[in-house]
Amino acid sequence: MKKFVKNGIAIIGIAVLILLAGGSAACSSSIAGAIASDLFGNKPSATDAYDRGKEFYRIGNYNQAIAEFTEWIQLNPDSSVGYYNRGNAYLGIKDYDRAIADYDKAIELDPKSASAYNGRAWIYAYHLKKDFNRAISDANQAVNLNPNNAIHFCTRGWAYLGNSDYSKAIADFEKSLQIDKNNKLSIEGLQLAQSVPQPAKDEDFEVKQNTDNTVTITNYKGTVKNLIIPDKLYGLKVTIIGGSAFQNKGLISVVIPDTVVTIENGLPDDISVSLPTATGSFYNNKELIKVTLGKGIKTIGDLAFSQNTQLTEIIIPDSVTKIGDYSFERSGLIKIIFGKSLQTIGKRAFEYNKITELNLPPSLKEIGEEAFSYNKIQKLTTGSGLQTIKEQAFKNNQITEINFNLPSSLKKIAEGAFASNKIQVLNLPNGITYIGSESHLANGRIEYINGAFENNPLTTVVIPASLSNNIGYQAFGSGNTITRITIPSGMKEDTLRNLFEDAFVNFWINQNRAGGTYVKRGPIWAKE
Question: Does the pTM of the predicted model rise above 0.85?
Answer without folding.
Answer: no
